[in-house]
Amino acid sequence: MSLSELSAHLELRPPTVHGIVRTLVSHGLVVQDRPTGRYQLGPATLRLGNVYLDTLDLRSRAITWAEELGRRTGFAVRVGVLLPGEALGDVVIIYHQPRPDGGRYMPEVGIVIPAHASALGKALLAFMPAVESQGQALRGMTGETITSRGELQDVLAQVRRTGIAEECDEAVLGESGLAGAVFDSHQLVGAIGVVVPTTEWPVGDSVVEAVRSAARTISRELGATQWPHPGNE
């Protein structure tokens, strides 16, 4: 953005914005494109992201169990937290354990997935305040995405009963998954799940139990005395 665009967006006077931008530039958080004079995020923002990840107790506790879950199931593992926003928010991936078969993969830490279209997101939404059954339709990612709030509410009720959420081709065609919510001693903190190629879907009971065990074990290590957390049912 240009300085004038930043000023208008922030509703601050240009000299004030210029002083803020100069400070951010000096720390590498913002860089200026010399030919156009426009500003964009700088490389130091990546360091901030890594600092955030390093402070997450969920991530540090989950790493060992994510590796074990990948070993037991043969699938890639994701750990995510809810990123609040419009509609039902997105899930941001804070840890990714590649599939243990040694295949090539793209780093996934930092990617966001619509909560209503992912197993991780459903595992999280199930233990949050009830989704309104009426209102604007949810965004469709594929032809399989649940876009009815009423239908999603029914799915989340099932997740609360079983502790496990699933999705098949709802966010990305060819990709399905299972996930379970993770709690600490007081509240919902995230979710862990496996990424399953749709060609290998549905999975067997052993995979379902492995996901349930991982979510329960991480929750216990974070201080939860019951799983799912009784205060969120």
From TrEMBL:
Domain HTH iclR-type: 1-43
A GO MF label: DNA binding
Keyword presence, Transcription regulation: yes
Domain (IclR-ED) ranges: 44-224
Pfam family name, one: HTH_IclR
PANTHER family: HELIX-TURN-HELIX TRANSCRIPTIONAL REGULATOR, ICLR FAMILY, HTH-TYPE TRANSCRIPTIONAL REPRESSOR ALLR
Protein name, as recorded: DNA-binding IclR family transcriptional regulator
Organism expressing this protein natively: Hoyosella altamirensis
